[in-house]
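queue> holo job accepted (iron/sulfur cluster)
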Amino acid sequence: MTSKYAVAAHNEFIAASNEALQTPNLQLALSRLGETLAAGNKSAFEKLPGSSLLRDKARAIKDETLAQLDVHLQILEAAVRAKGGHVHYAADAADANEIVERIAKERGIRRVVKSKSMVTEEIHLNHHLEQAGIEVTETDFGEFIIQVAGERPSHLVGPALHKTAEEMAVVLNERFDQQLSKEPHEMAQFARGYLRQKFAQAEMGVTGGNFLVAETGTVVLISNEGNARLTTSVPRVMVSVVGIEKVIPQLSDLPIFLKVLARAATGQKLSIYTSMITGPRREGEGDGPEEFHLVLLDNGRSRILGSPSRESLFCIRCGACLNICPVYRKIGGHAYGSNYSGPIGAVISPLYDGLKQTYHQPHASSLCGACQAACPVKIQIPELLIRNREAQHEEKVAPAGEELIYRLWSWVMRRPRLYRWAARVGAWTMGARARQGWVAKLPGPLAGWTAHRDFPVPDAKPFRDRWAALQREDIPVTHPVTKR
Ligand code: SF4
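queue> job finished
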């Protein structure tokens, strides 16, 4: 039964990936990631003295904070309340949606503006509020485009990254009956004019939060457009929905994260806007909300906290692992089929959404480790992907045939003589099918490899034999093999 889900999820993923591979505009957008965001990340960290130590420090703060998360959340709650704000705990997505809806309905709110937030995508807040008759307008330009297009984000920091400028212009022209060209300035001017009206009319602003500073009760929002500032300062009520793992203990921790997040995400030294919201507007202040609500979302995070995948909670959603991933850079975000995509998506989506419907995701990786190298908090993403694969077997989600193959493989590997014999037979068989050192078609489950490229024939003399020969002849062995 379970493997049926796995096969369906796998087939859907393959179909969506094939479609992505045959979409020229998407391929063009993805091909630019290497020389834009990924290159920006690499050069920004190379230019930053002691960047590795800084990343270690950021990682250590996350690790230590999560070890006492309950304590830090209590400090945060007390600080928010002391500044006149309200704190709500949401066990899951339904809870969080219901809390935000209640806040809106109790105050007669009909119009909401939002700044970009992955966590509200995770809980499908827009859909929930719209079902309740509340108008929601996304105000980040990329989010605005995909809201109008009726799509979901394809990237953690560039939600409309899958669309070209021409496609964005089509979306706006069709919806708003405009004649906009693909010039970014022209589209931005139109969106600015439209969204200004929405800001002026909105009674409630909804945000996520990049960080929550426990000691001061501050929500930190990082953006490059300035829309978060209007979302938090114009409407009379502000609601921030934030995952509980976003808490950091003190204000002095924040500069470390600001430095690594901006560099990892876009290669900038610092993002253009860093907004720090501490409670509602105080006497004498010129703007800001009359009411401030912080919704702290669990939605599976405390379960992950006690699991071997705890480290995934260190993620600061910079998107660097997506930009460098050879799989993401070919298929984009939508093919993954979940809210979160790319390497970190393949780690956390199975933890949030369940192993069955996300069966394909932990397998959508070559485990090359580029994601871990790019990650500003050095999350061991390949290990976590392997952990998810193991969990699929433990939970009997993986197809029975796959389980059998691994069991057989493990049995053979524990018998060296049999292993050597099997390796020789395999090499001989491939050699017999090869032309000029390459096999064009492999049989059975291995056929996927040769569907798009040839397979090199294993050397007739296995490494084991060559190693033994080197030992016998006492030939000095240099890098990469060091003689004992
Ligand atoms: S796992 Fe690391 S690189 Fe990927 S989004 Fe999270 S913090 Fe960024």
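queue> The pocket of iron/sulfur cluster is lined by residues 156, 264, 315-321, 344, 374-377, 379 (CB under 6 Å).
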